[in-house]
Amino acid sequence: MGYTRAYVEAHRGTINEKRRIKYSTERRKEEYKNKREEILQRGKEDRAICPLCGLSFRRLYIPKHIVTRHKCEPPEDLNETIVQPPAT
Q1: Number of H helices, E strands in the chain
Q2: What is the pTM of this model?
């Protein structure tokens, strides 16, 4: 949306106020905090136990963990063998 020079001169205060609200430090901190909480919550909920050693990891990390730690290929039926840890 392009502003004309006349529009900017007539509505400078409104435009600046909208910009201040958009880039407000408090608003950005609140958005960051909410996003961080959401990511941490997903990390807590999306855990699984390694079928080979019994340690708990993020579900996404299990195949890499098996290759790195146990030096073997992940089993074909890995998604069926992964067990959810008990809720804490």
Answers
A1: 5, 2
A2: 0.53
